[in-house]
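Exercise 7b. Backbone tokens:
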């Protein structure tokens, strides 16, 4: 098979790396990729959101399967275009990708299907939103821009004053442009979060082992939200009983409702779940692999990923017997640039990656990297996802941080407590 992976983050590097291990795969392209994907794939100078050029490339080069990493091209309809051109593609159509592209769509679907989630109200005008806040009790609230906002459109507000400021920023100042033409105001849930990823082919659901992300920038979950500073898998806080509950009350009714409403979902359904005192509740849906969750999850997967994703893309997941997992846990520590998640310096040299990679059961996944003058340099905020297996979570953590210590990079930093929540 010839495979095209779309995207340029750590998620795409682990996808390329894992797919390259498949005996079915002859060649992998990555568009646009990074310095890490260049090791196992040929990087293409095509942006991830240039749907027409990507489709043209796939057509002209006989690509057998395209795997789309990030949400933006999915929401923009890359899958619809590829299918129109009779190209196999793993991911949801634009109408199914609304599960990530529109929080209003998702919240309304959850309510219709009676799926547990935070209570909420939707507004498109300031006066009504302000009145609602005025009438609600003084309590923590969460304010969300409806559309895609690169992970920045969610405000967890301690009180009414903060919620007012957030609503104003979204609806009136249009900080997120059209993504803020509607706002969701919802109840603030309390509990531990878990990332539930499942492969779906429109009909059949194959849950992956559970991961836990670390969204806050600093140790002990302090500081601003980020794209994710580390993850581990499996996450013991989701017991088999809780997982059954999530499948029965959340995943199945979601996929069923999408199907009966004429937008069957295929691809990865990523449910951000809050484990509350009243059971698991949906915080959000994403329609793709999580980043950095994909790194520890796929590091543990022993099954042939190319075979599995092709079955999912072609509506044949019932042919999959089961997934084969490495029983050992995996921990991924994200190294970020100095200044991230604020402004950060770019173009700084990173060395020691080969030494880190040479450690047993360890892999350095690249995210924001490029090659400049034969040297790996940082080009993004989240730059490396250093991932290791171990016999226990504690050992996997130790192995991952041992690899972190091999990296030399001015200002590069990471959290020191990834996986401690386990
Ligand atoms: P989202 O983009 O919807 O996942 O939100 C980003 C993060 O905001 C989540 O991972 C949670 O940490 C937090 N969050 C979102 N919704 C809520 C909620 N209703 N209650 C508490 N925290 C939330
Ligand atoms: N790690 C969170 C995400 O991929 O959205």
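Sequence design result:
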């Amino acid at each position: 098979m010839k495979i095209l992976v779309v995207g340029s983050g750590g998620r795409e590097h682990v996808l390329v790396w894992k797919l390259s291990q498949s005996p079915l795969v002859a060649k992998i392209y990555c568009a646009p990729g990074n310095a890490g994907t260049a090791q196992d794939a040929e990087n293409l100078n095509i942006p991830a959101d240039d749907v027409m050029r990507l489709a043209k490339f796939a057509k002209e080069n006989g690509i057998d399967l395209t795997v789309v990493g990030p949400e933006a091209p999915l929401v923009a309809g890359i899958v619809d275009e590829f299918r129109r051109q009779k190209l196999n593609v793993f991911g949801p159509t634009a109408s199914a990708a609304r599960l990530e592209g529109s929080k209003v769509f998702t919240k309304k679907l959850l309510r219709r299907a009676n799926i547990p989630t935070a209570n909420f109200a939707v507004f498109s005008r300031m006066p009504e939103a302000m009145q609602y806040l005025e009438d609600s009790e003084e309590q923590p609230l969460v304010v969300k821009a409806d559309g895609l906002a690169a992970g920045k459109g969610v405000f967890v507000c301690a009180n009414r004053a903060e919620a007012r400021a957030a609503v104003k920023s979204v609806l009136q100042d249009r900080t997120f442009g059209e993504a803020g033409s509607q706002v969701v105001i919802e109840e603030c849930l309390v509990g531990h979060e878990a990332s539930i990823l499942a492969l779906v082919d429109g009909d059949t659901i194959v849950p992956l082992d559970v991961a836990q992300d670390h969204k806050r920038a600093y140790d002990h979950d302090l500081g601003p939200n980020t794209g994710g500073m580390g993850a581990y898998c499996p996450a013991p806080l989701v017991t088999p009983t809780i997982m059954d509950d999530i499948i029965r009350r959340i995943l199945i009714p979601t996929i069923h409702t999408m199907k009966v409403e004429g937008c069957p979902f295929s691809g990865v359904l990523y449910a951000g779940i809050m484990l509350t005192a009243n059971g698991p509740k949906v915080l959000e849906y994403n329609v793709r692999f999580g980043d950095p969750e994909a790194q520890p999850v796929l590091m543990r997967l022993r099954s042939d990923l190319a075979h599995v994703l092709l079955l999912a893309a072609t509506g044949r997941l019932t042919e999959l017997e089961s997934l084969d997992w490495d029983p050992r846990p995996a921990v991924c520590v994200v190294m970020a640039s100095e200044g991230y998640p604020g402004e950060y310096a770019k173009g700084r040299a990173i060395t020691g990656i080969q030494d880190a990679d040479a450690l047993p059961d360890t892999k350095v996944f690249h995210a924001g990297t490029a090659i400049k003058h034969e040297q790996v340099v940082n080009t993004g905020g989240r730059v490396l996802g250093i991932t290791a297996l171990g016999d226990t979570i504690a050992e996997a953590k130790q192995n991952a941080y041992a690899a972190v210590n091999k990296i030399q990079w001015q200002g590069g930093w990471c959290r020191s407590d990834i996986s401690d929540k386990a």
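Instructor comment: The chain has a mean pLDDT of 96. The pocket of adenosine monophosphate (ligand 1) is lined by residues 118, 142, 154, 156, 186, 188-189, 193, 215, 272, 283-284 (CB under 6 Å).
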